Amino acid sequence: MALDRILDDLACYLEHQLDEGITRIEVAPARGAAAGPDDPAATRAALARIADDVAACRQCALHGARPRTVPGQGSPTPEILFVGEAPGAEEDRAGLAFVGAAGQLLTRMIEAMGLTREEVFIANIVKCRPPGNRPPLPDETQACLPYLKAQIGRLRPKVIVALGASAVKALLDPAEGITRLRGRWHRCEGIDVMPTFHPAYLLRTPSAKQDAWEDLKAVLTRLGRQPPPRSR
């Protein structure tokens, strides 16, 4: 229901503000019609504020060497949110999520689903590049996770696709590994989550691509969609 969604957005926003040490919020008088949570312009503005918070963040050591932050990008009204691990070298330079070799494969995966990158939202658990592209440390993940949860609270996608072990661990904190979890539905922040392999892993292990495609087809089924016919 619309009220439930508004309350979820408000709770996520307040949690994010508390994590930032903000305990008092000034509320200005409304002028004209208020923008609802489904208003793309309002969502873009909210995402821009989160990106500004990310750019100013000093909550972990990763901020010391970053040339820029990578908050994520895409549609303000996505059905699907793709969540990866952390920016790599190409993402670090561009300030955009998933633009390197793994990002190019993710683009092809999205297009195989009959969508474009502009129709989904793409982000990472951690918004700054770890040295040497290593996995994020637990304290780095915990420092950055409120930003992602604030984005989830604003975007309210129908499905989250968790790409790889780090994203699955941060969103679901499971006892099992990605190999056993993939292909099975889970829940995070009241939203369906499909764990699958990270595109970087698929580049190293092409034999896993069919499993990842089955996961993405399950996402389409959950959304009432069908993949487009493959060109011969």
Would you kindly provide a written description of the structure presented here, covering whatever features stand out?
The protein is an alpha/beta fold. The chain has one domain: Uracil-DNA Glycosylase, subunit E. It has nine helices and six strands. The protein has helices spanning 2-19, 40-55, 89-94, 101-112, 138-155, 165-172, 178-181, 199-204, 209-222, and strands at residues 73-74, 80-84, 121-124, 159-163, 186-188, 191-196. Strands 1-3-2-4-6-5 form a six-stranded mixed beta sheet, with helices on both faces. Helix 1 (2-19) runs antiparallel to helix 5. The longest helix is centred in the first third of the chain and has 18 residues, at 2-19. The protein is globular, with a radius of gyration of 18 Å. The termini are far apart. Mean pLDDT is 88; it is low at 24-36.
In short:
It contains nine helices and six strands; from the N terminus they run H-H-E-E-H-H-E-H-E-H-H-E-E-H-H.
Order the strands across the largest sheet as they lie in space. 1-3-2-4-6-5
| SSE series | HHEEHHEHEHHEEHH
Question: How many structural domains are formed by the residues?
Answer: 1
| Average predicted local confidence, pLDDT | 88
